[in-house]
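Example record

The entry below shows one chain as it appears in the dataset: sequence first, then structure tokens.
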Amino acid sequence: MERTRTWRPPYDLDLRLTLGQLQRGHSDPTYRVAPDGAVWRSARTPAGPCSLRITASRTTGEVTGQAWGPGAEWQLDRFPDLLGADDNPAAFPSHHHPLLHDAFRLRRGMRMPRTGLVLAALIPSILEQKVTTIEARKAFRLLVHWYGEPAPGPAPAELRVIPDAATWARIPTWDWHRAGVDHKRSRTIMAAVRVAPALERTAPLPNPEASRLLKLVPGIGVWTTAETMQRSHGDADAVSVGDLHLCKQVTYALTGTPGDDARMLELLAPYQGHRHRAALLIRMSPGAKVPRKAPRFAPRNYTRI
């Protein structure tokens, strides 16, 4: 049965920029943009799976969510959170640098989405640990295709719901291998799904406390925690320390010289509370790309190891 909720945000909202932060590449099986511009998302909520179709009216500013499945009511109850209602970009001190001032002005409608679903944000982040983006996104797509389920309702045929914790725990070694996931990452996912209920209970906690608890899981460090918190908690300050490229891109954009994580954090200090937002705006700015001096890392083929 379809459930519907219409909500008018009390702020300018760029739907694609906001929800696009949740997409794990163009092949993400849990996210689709339809030809009519509607955004489709699947989710595994505490009440069960659901699919959500989101559209925005250019004339009224209203955003409508249509949801199907056992988790539909849970998802629509948190509809404003998904659209960044808890975010406060007005407090972003964009005046510190002209690049960020211009980037923020051009993307005022971008909010930090809060899904409230920790495991769903954590597992793709673990898959992205220390591998190329291509490798990680392929692994996520394959595993959700093999072990997920079709999204309920009239969702696009290719939209699937991420597996639940018990299903992740049952994935055999050879399918991790076939998806290109090494033992270290699969072991970390196993550690996370064993404490999945405790992880989900961090969703309503203050961001610093939730971040601290996530890092108690073996294999989950600062980078993975930040990547998760950005999505599950809408944390605008969770900067991805440890990212191979981000520190160079941020420091190059703000000083003209690529630097390390320490230098990046020094430069982002004036944006405390919004450091992830600042880094994200920099990544979106065409003029902030670091000139390439070395070849890209080649994806590894774990099926031949």
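Notes for this example: The longest strand covers residues 48-56. The radius of gyration is 19 Å.
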